[in-house]
Amino acid sequence: MSNCKRKLLSTERESLILKALGEGVSTITELSAQLNVSEATVRRDLHSLEEQGKAKRIHGGAVRVKFPQTEPIFTEKAGFHAQEKKSIAEKALEYIEDNDSIYLDGGSTILPLARMLDSRKNLTIVTNSMMAAAELMESQHRLILLGGEFRALSRTLVGPLTQQIVNTLHINKAFMGTIGFTVDEGISTTDPGEAFTKEIVMRRAGKVYVLVDSSKIGVPSFAVSGSINDIDTVITDENISPKLVKELEDSEVKIVF
Amino acid sequence: MSNCKRKLLSTERESLILKALGEGVSTITELSAQLNVSEATVRRDLHSLEEQGKAKRIHGGAVRVKFPQTEPIFTEKAGFHAQEKKSIAEKALEYIEDNDSIYLDGGSTILPLARMLDSRKNLTIVTNSMMAAAELMESQHRLILLGGEFRALSRTLVGPLTQQIVNTLHINKAFMGTIGFTVDEGISTTDPGEAFTKEIVMRRAGKVYVLVDSSKIGVPSFAVSGSINDIDTVITDENISPKLVKELEDSEVKIVF
DNA sequence: AAAGAAAATGCAAACTTTTGAAAGAATTTT
DNA sequence: AAAATTCTTTCAAAAGTTTGCATTTTCTTT
Q1: Separation of CA A9 and C1' D14 in angstroms?
Q2: Architecture of domain B10-64
């Protein structure tokens, strides 16, 4: 190196330094010799590179920084019934075909489903769930987030504002989570704003699938979304009681377990 | 190069300069010798090229910039000029008061600002940035996400769908990021959908603050959002040129640095 | 075609940034 | 703990930039 006839500009030096760093480290003395500049200048260049996040200073030299630290994305709280939820999601996945336009609701039951969507092609995915969106950020599908007020507890976007976007979209199949589920009242949740969003989604969606693990069945929550009539299919696990299966079938709801 | 007997027109020189720059850099002295003109003329040509966004001046020479200006991937951008961005964000923070209703745009310059908002109380924060939303998830403020199509590169929600929510909200102060900034065209970005969202936000916001580090100034990108008239205040770092300060003041834009 | 206006160019003085050297503080090694 | 190395700060010289002005070139107008 250093067949430099003329003085180098700072940017040239910086890229040469990066090249010299390669994968490993270089000392100030080495770089100073290679670039034919004083050590003070090397330090200054290194400082600039560090500000740009391209290199990191260490005592006596510098190291290349590879790919800058990946941002802290949403973290998932380790879940109850994780295995059941995953198997419920697998059943739901079978109803999703290439080119579908689907809605993913919030909730820990829907999240595993979001992770499986790489097996489908060219989906349009509409969601109000920040967690699902974070999962799908890197995917190849088209991703649309409902706007609205952020609800910290469920990490979803809820309330009247969500209505506007929902009403302009055509949703083929909606996959809904829930806090409570009863045959009389259908799905219910703790927050009225969230219930409202669920309701307008269900009303507009072509087909509505409710994913619910058996621990929530028979337990009503505070705010009800729509009625049992808005639901086409309930997808749940094997622990569901035969009595409930019959009740659902009487209400013309398909049930998968 | 250029054994030119007759004198060259400025446009001819400029294209020769661009050719000489190639992908790399050239010094003023080199260019002056190659083109048989004084260094003063080279500087003037380079200045003109810079205004056109085709080259970027650096001390002692110039580098070629590709057009349209490419957008670095998000994680790369995060570390770039990190210190400047933080100090820009600190200046912007002073314009945010308790109970304000503010908009946070996408971009790595706005992100540090999101992190500082704990020092204010009872804000209503509207944003189209997933990263900003992730930062603000735990905060006490009211958080509203614009809906819309998710754009992976910038991790923002963009496009026509965003318009609906923006139009129903009252935004007190909007804090905008940008990929490129020129006095002639104002802020510009790489994606038309993103430009669209920026534009409708700026049009509806009471006051518009643009946060831009000096490396982006004078560099236009592909899709322009609104005009310089939509901007009330530009917040930048100390490296801004006095000339630009004057130009902005002539356009009745307040400038903070 | 000549005179005048406008634009471009080169030059030089004042100013700014960058660079290298040196001194003292901080860190690592022996 | 002493020695050696490296880091930070400061300062002056060198290199680069800006600005105003005189000169040349180019364009317009008569």
Answers
A1: 15
A2: Orthogonal Bundle (1.10)
